[in-house]
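Mods, move this if it's the wrong board.
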Amino acid sequence: MALANILVAPNGARRTRKDHPSLPVTIEQTVQTAKACFDAGADGIHAHIRDKDQKHLLDAGLYRELQAELTLKVPDMWVQITTEAVGIYSPEEQRAIVRNSDPEAVSISIREMLSEGENSDVSKFYWEQAEKGVEIQHILYDDQDAATLARLIKDETLPATNLQLLFVLGRYSVGQVSNPDDLQPFMQSLDAFEGINLDWGCCAFGQQETECLLAAIKAGGKARIGFENNLHMKDGSIAPDNAARVTELITELRARSL
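Not the wrong board. Structure tokens:
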């Protein structure tokens, strides 16, 4: 299956309901948000789970529960879980979560997965997941991450099948803001994947999220949108909920015939 055209990221790993009262932190809230965003036009969800204190959590049992609820309540929505470490989880723990969660799709930062070096279990993990049909979206924070991934694919350390990339705009800039121009280094990095069939998307921090995603779609990519990266509407006002962010993006796409 291809990467979702509009993937909603409704909570992420860091924000809580103190940041926004409509940010989902329970399985029930996440499913409700997914349904509202699907109805608004999102065809996929990038899902995080939290503990009882709203803190980031990687837990295979809760991931299976969330996936089951989403399949029941929003059966046509593409579901992607995350392995984001947030300085808490090791690469080995991240791999174990995927192995024990049986996801349809998962996002993995190549930078995090290689933080303890390029060892044989890293390669084994990626190949076994490819054989199982799990769709891995590689999170890339800059063009160097892209170059590293391209090298590992070309030397067959990692598989090239069903290759999915996510370009992160603004994550490491001051104030976590982004600009459509931030997409250009990533676009140039695609040259390193010449001859490989791939699917790419983009997410962006800050109030220019909509413009950044429109630029990515115009360039042939897909969009990840939501409260994980930005709480604002295009006009600078606070969005009432994640579905409003999805609605605004789709409205702009139609207005610009994209």
